[in-house]
Amino acid sequence: MADKAKGKAEQLKGKGKEAVGKVTGDDRMKAEGKMDQAKGKAKETMGKAEDRARGIDDSLRGRK
């Protein structure tokens, strides 16, 4: 669950960087923002997959 939250936070940070890069004309900052967003999305997706796997494991073991 923490990975999903960290992923969302990194995406938000990336959007901010990208916006600042666009306003200031800083192509490097724009690129860093896009990279942060991609990393954040990957972390979020990984967190969701881990949660699903944990849920499947729990259901197979009869836990709630």
Describe this structure in words.
This protein has 64 residues and is mainly α. The protein is built from 2 helices and no strands. Helix 1 (2-24) runs antiparallel to helix 2. The protein is rod-shaped, with a radius of gyration of 16 Å. The mean pLDDT is 90.
Strand content: under 5%
The coarse overall form would be rod-shaped
Number of helical stretches of at least 4 residues:
2
Largest sheet entry? none
Order of helices and strands: HH
**Helicity level:** over 70%
Cα-to-Cα separation, first versus last residue: 17 Å
Radius of gyration: 16 Å
Structural class: mainly alpha
Averaged pLDDT: 90
| Total beta strand runs | 0
* Low-confidence parts: none
Defining key terms:
single chain, 64 residues, mainly alpha, 2 helices, 89% helix, rod-shaped
